[in-house]
Amino acid sequence: MHMIKPHSSFVDVNDIRLHYLEWDPAKICQDPATANADNSFEQDSDDLPIVLLHGLNATADTWRLLAEQICSQRQLIAFDLRGHGQSDQPEDGYDLVTIAEDIISAMATLGLGQVALVGHGLGARIALVLTARHPALISHLVLVDCPLVEPKHWPGMTRERFIRDKETPDIYASEQHYLQTMQDEMASFWSPDVEAILKTYIRELPNGHVEEGLRTSYQRQMRESLWEDRALSYYSKLTCPVLLVPAADQPHPDEELPERLENADEFAAAKGYMAAQVARTIPRCTVLWMPDTTHEIQLQRPQLLAQAIANFVKE
């Protein structure tokens, strides 16, 4: 399969430089390598662009498999959030509001008006903050496996436990060791493309070891902001259509929140319960349940997620 290569560039915002990837339908249609590619979507010049925000310690590259499914139809722009990927790593500014305003400034600099906004994980919470602060700029909001409820309301969670979850960075003896660890976790959907994407998440140290690209101190700042942020106050005020995509099964009507969150099944059940509760408070909400799926939906089921997003933003 031919991998569609996005345009890679930088934009200056708020005294830092953000890296982004762009998939432009006009340029893709002119590319002889992709001109005959099979694609089920039809291009419409009136379609609004889609802006994509990755999760904690990921990069814009996380959207490559999904973007391939939509990019002949719409312009897509995926940013490396501050501290991630090829974007600058300032010492501060890792709260959700500052990061959201980075994206707003970048959109303005790039000449983007109203867009459809898609976020994954922590990027979804940033997308939520952005939409709540600038509702006129967002036509549709897609929250992919978003931590919808504040961690302070998670069963058994304390501020110290949540913020100190990453006391030390994950350091691997080599790139191959890192990739083998990831392959063990993602065995059911591992591929050379997934491997190439995950390589963008890490950096090599002088001794040949590799570590996560986002420094631990910056991760802690983000966790502190996530703990303080009042997500539950946003949902009833959202005016655009919202699509929730939890990596969970739809809970039974009488199902209750698990008392503890210690294993994957308990987390999945909690995500399903919280998604169902939040969906009831959003005025225009649709839920796409993704049972038997890991947090990395955009890597595991990119075609299904892309089709759902494409259909949703056409509404």
From TrEMBL:
Record's GO cellular component terms: membrane
Domain AB hydrolase-1: 49-236
Keyword field contains Transcription: no
Source species, domain of life: Bacteria
GO-annotated molecular function: monoacylglycerol lipase activity
Coiled-coil region(s): none
GO biological process: acylglycerol catabolic process
Protein name: Alpha/beta hydrolase
